Request: fold
Amino acid sequence: MVSAKTLYDVIVIGGGPVGSQVAYRLAGMGYHIVVLERKTRLTDAACCTGIVSQECTTAFSIPDSVIYRWVNGAQLYSPSSKPLEIERTAPQVAILNRPAFNELWAEYAQTAGAEFLVGSEVRGIRKGENSVVIDVINRGNKIELQARVAVLTTGFGSQLVDGLGLGAAGDFVMGAQAEVETKADKVEVYFGNKIAPGFFAWLVPTVPGKALAGLLSRRHPPAYLRSFLARLSAEGKIVSADVPFTYGGVPLKPLPKTYGERLLVVGTAAGQVKPLTGGGIYFGLICADIAANTLHRCLGWDDLSNDKLAGYQRSWKRRLGRELRTGYLARRIYERLNDRQLDRIFGLMDSSGLIQELEDAGELSFDWHADVVSHIFSQRMFMTAMRSVKMPLNLRVRLRRDANT
Ligand SMILES: Cc1cc2nc3c(=O)[nH]c(=O)nc-3n(C[C@H](O)[C@H](O)[C@H](O)COP(=O)(O)OP(=O)(O)OC[C@H]3O[C@@H](n4cnc5c(N)ncnc54)[C@H](O)[C@@H]3O)c2cc1C
Reply:
């Protein structure tokens, strides 16, 4: 029973998968944990397609009960609709049932001993005496809870994080998605500035007859999704384009600082997201474990100072820093390509056997893009194709440097 008189070890703010993972790990270590979630139902998941790699499902033992299906490959479409198929023999990614996954992860945390208070919106975080004080609106009532440390796992665009003085994620992209009726049974990914400026659109089958169609885009996601659905409908790939949309956002760069006095920020709230694809589940779960390990040490020392918690940022940067930096560099270069150049690169990838080469080199990972990017940058034909792309000097220098490493 959650009580205002209790001094919790850890208050986790946000009951998404990352918050539940932090709570699960720390409750399992014997700490007194409460998770505060503003939604009244944990199954009201974020706008998300739920694609995670096989590596992620293994690392975090994600059971089949929350997986819609496994996927071996995808059909990619260039801006001029040239298809490029990537197909592998073994399953590469799982499509998660996001509401069921959210619920299961919260259940794991509860079984380990964490308490959940749903319908609880955190409005403020203050310093107390040897504690952190959390101001909560719980179903219309103001309550105040205290803990030795707070972990923010509030997802994208949280005003709470903005108010902590840790800086801002610096760059982000918005998305829209809809559930559609379809006969398609292959994942399809569409590129091009007329489809999803700066990013891409997708049609991802979930259960028989249904799919998620969506996109991330630098501009007007609803307008681009409307025209994407109209195209799919005209091509007979979906039954109707007249479907309700959900909206969400993805940070493309991490927060400059992800810790403070009695405070950690983890997951999408911290910008721990793959900049090339917008995938945040796997990296968020990895960082949740790193946060739990750091907190276990600091709670043991009873030292939750800024300096001691800095170890969290050092650890997650050691694991993911290169990925996030290289992914963001590749993203900025991708965004400078016009449709003609994108088509040319598609053609080169197809004719040069690059995909096969990456596969053979074991570098075609769904999660770890830095090696793929370095491999592509080291290809003479790629660098030749890039000559016509207008880029600021700093990007050109980094591109050349990465190509030579
Ligand atoms: C269109 C789209 C498609 C995506 N597709 C994929 C994909 O295929 N694969 C992938 O890996 N990632 C994908 N993502 C990203 C993915 O959804 C997130 O990275 C993931 O949900 C992050 O989990 P989280 O626990 O950090 O945050 P969230 O899942 O967003 O959970 C945050 C929780 O905090 C709660 N909260 C927020 N503020 C407060 C507050 N003040 N008080 C209390 N509670 C609060 C929210 O209600 C929410 O439940 C996609 C994102 C978008 C926008």
About this structure: DSSP finds twelve helices and 18 strands in the chain. The CA atoms of residues 65 and 100 lie 8 Å apart. The chain has three domains: 7-47+98-169+252-320, 172-251, 326-403.
